Amino acid sequence: MTRSVHMAEPEITGRLGRLRPSLDGAGCDALLVTNLVNVRYLTGFTGSAALLLVLADAVVLTTDGRYRDQAAEQTAAAGVDATVEVRPTLAAQHEVLASAASGIARLGLEAESVTWAQQRRFAADVFATASLVPTDGLVEDLRRVKDAGEVERMAEAARIADEALAAVIPLLGQGVTEREVALGLDYEMRRLGASGSSFETIVASGPNGAKPHARPTDRRIEPGELVVIDFGAIVDGYCSDMTRTVCIGEPADDTALRMVAVVRESQREGVAAVAPGVRAREVDDKCRAVITEAGWADAFLHGTGHGVGLEIHEAPRVGSTSEDVLAPGHVVTVEPGVYLAEHGGVRIEDTVVVTDDGCRVLTNAPKELVV
Ligand code: ZN
Ligand code: ZN
Questions:
Q1: Chain segment 263-320, per-residue pLDDT in tens
Q2: Separation of 17 CA from ligand 1 center, angstroms?
Q3: Residue 212: Cβ within 10 Å count
Q4: Where in the chain is the domain with CATH 3.40.350.10?
Q5: C-alpha to C-alpha distances, 73 to 21, 78, 195, nearest whole angstrom
Q6: What mean pLDDT is reported for the chain?
Q7: What spacing in Å lies between the alpha carbon of 103 and ligand 1's midpoint?
Q8: Which of 17, 61, 224, 304 has a beta carbon 3.0–4.6 Å from 284's, enabling a disulfide?
Q9: Taking a C-beta distance cutoff of 8 angstroms, is the pair 320, 303 a contact?
């Protein structure tokens, strides 16, 4: 199925130029990028194996023969002037990188993605003459701010998820299981043009809903119980994330109804607080205040939200201890919830993009409880 909209391309070319000025502040002269999502972000290369050496005036991408053509094609299409070196073995790729980095005194490594084994090998053999510097979030910081092409992909992923939910909701009245609903959503998202689901789809009914990240089971969904549905689509690598809580007919108990009203209000307050210059923890505060007021502070079992982009969870973090400040182009979720063993769970989540004067909600499926 072809896409109904023409999307602007993300601007990959300028990213290396924005990364380089941060290297000196991080105490390094060059950076070895081992996180594949970051490799993709910087070069456009989507293969499953790569090492990227970012030098002051050059970029070297190594990969293996499976990606001989793809690596050259994708970096060229992205307008990135990288030297692509294809070698059959990791040892041979390391040799290429060692020689490219031979004059480097301080080589930055991505501390969150380098394994212990890699670090030992880099230090002992590959970059033995350089001092290796742990760096934290240099590329991830750039990834926070999405350009128009990135936002368009996330909006398209959100639109696909909206449509998939609308297609699957009618199933609910037909005695289906959690697993069948999850499969239906995954299928619809793929049929509508997504390359996949942005994480394992959550469909949690009745008591299962009291676990925020329950996995779908063969439990049959009954009328009157709450059903938490949390899912997202991927378009060109970019994720969406949305949760709706629904019920076949009216909820069986008044507490469930009240939980829904409280979480809705909490979520509305959170979204209303999202704006540039706002500290992410203030969004969490807004959501938490409504739930605390209702007496359920201890039943809100997680942070309010997270950044979304090439990964389903990325910076910034929307939680009570977050130091992040929202800025235009940030894409975050707002997803408060209340979880009570006897009544199940309620969570409502939207993915929103921070604009110049507030935010725009990308996930637009109706929030009506009763289906
Ligand atoms: Zn979610
Ligand atoms: Zn989420």
A1: 999 999 999 999 999 999 999 999 999 999 999 999 999 999 999 999 999 999 999 9
A2: 33
A3: 18
A4: 15-143
A5: 27, 9, 20
A6: 96
A7: 46
A8: 304
A9: yes
Residues with Cβ–ion distance below 5 A, ligand 2: 241, 333
State the Cα–Cα distance between residues 239 and 310, nearest whole angstrom.
Answer: 6
Q: How many residues does the chain have?
A: 371
Alpha carbon of 55 to ligand 1 centroid (Å): 37
Q: How far is the CA of 196 from the centre of ligand 1 (A)?
A: 15
Kindly give the distance from the C-alpha atom of residue 205 to the centroid of ligand 1, in angstroms, as a whole number: 16
Name the CATH superfamily housing domain 15-143: Creatinase/prolidase N-terminal domain (3.40.350.10)
The phi and psi torsions of 254 (rounded to 5 degrees) equal: -70, -30
Residues carrying CATH 3.90.230.10, the chain: 148-361
Query: Closest-lying ligand to the alpha carbon of 204?
Result: 1
C-alpha span between 236 and 146 (Å, rounded): 14
Contact, 349 vs 361, CB < 8 A?
Answer: no
What six digits make up the tokens of 35?
């996180």
